[in-house]
Predict the structure.
Amino acid sequence: MRRITFLILGLLLISMTSIARKPLKGSDYAIGFYNLENLFDTCHDEGKNDYEFMPEGTFKWDTEKYTNKLHNLARVLSEMASDRLPEGCAAIGVAEVENAKCLADLCNEPPLKQRNIQYIHVEGPDQRGIDCGLIYNPALFSIRDVKLVPYIYKQPEDSLRATRGFLVVSGILACEHVTIIVNHLPSRGAASYYREEGGRQLKVVKDSLLKADPNQKLLIMGDMNDDPQDASMAECLGAKREISEVGEGDLYNPWWNVLASGEGTLSFKGRWNLFDQIILSPSLLRQESGTLGFDSCEIFRRDYLIRQDGPYAGTPLRTHGGGQWLNGYSDHLPTVVYLKM
């Protein structure tokens, strides 16, 4: 009898926990993106050009600097969306991370470890060794499938080059099928063509995913190295400025109007750009009761992320500047989108 009583109590507890985790109407969820600006460890990865981030390299990258970098980034990642949601983001895509060890070390930092934040990383072909990844709260977002789709160079002269692919993570958020694509398009050191080609390839990946499940909620995020109005985003990917403009096969880019208002995520020669975008599929725009939909977006900006004095006052407080270690965070600011049931 006593054993049966414990069994009943256990089943009741499981049932109550399940009900507590079931999304309620009006529930909010946050999804973010952050370029971590060269999160390298201090060891050489064979086959990668990571020598400048070693103790004897250009940046004299040692254990103290690496440890401080992890501590700084963990603070930002744990605080993103926390003003509105105590649990923070359900998932955050990241760029410029060297390897799985860096993400494991990052998730082991106390602000993230106490939430049991997990990570996803697939080693890519980038010559410098920087990849995209995803960290997530398993209590909010459960993983179904992970794959890395390579960026394909089409020009014969580029056959020996390699860059970041498209990290595709499929899972369940608020009892719905949600897929996140994290990417980092070629830098502005390359011609616009290469980012436009990235936009076209992202569209192929997106179309393939939506063909398999037209109702899934899809978010394409990353450091696009282009602004929302540039051809790679507006034309090749088909990310529209206004919800009313989103037609069949299109996407919605809420950051277009954010940049137009004067806000950005990185500053170059006194001008703000907004490369760090999170773009939404039409399924996130439907106003249907009981489904997950787009609510709002924001650039996560805090005073501690901004240089307060000197010629670069008002710009992101990065790790290095002018050849000096600044013990900062990143040259980019993070972005967040809020979804509501």
Summary: The first helix runs from residue 2 to 21. The chain is about 25% helix and 30% strand.
